[in-house]
Amino acid sequence: MARGKLIESEEALIQRYLRPLAAGFPGAWGLEDDCASLRVPPGEELVLTTDAVAAGVHFLADDRPQDIAWKALAVNASDLAAKGARPIAYLMSLAFPSPPETDWLEKFADGLKAAQACFKMTLAGGDTDRRRGPVAITITAIGAVPEGRMVRRATAGPGDMLFVSGTLGDAALGLKLRRTPELAGRWGLKGREARLLVGRYLRPVPRLALRSAILDFASATIDISDGLAKDLDRLCRASGLKGLVRARDLPLSEAGRKVVTRMPKLFGDVVAGGDDYEILAAVAPAHAASFAMAAAAAGVDVTAIGALEPGRGIAIEGHDGRPLRLARLGWDHF
Question: Is 0.90 surpassed by the pTM of this model?
Answer without folding.
Answer: yes
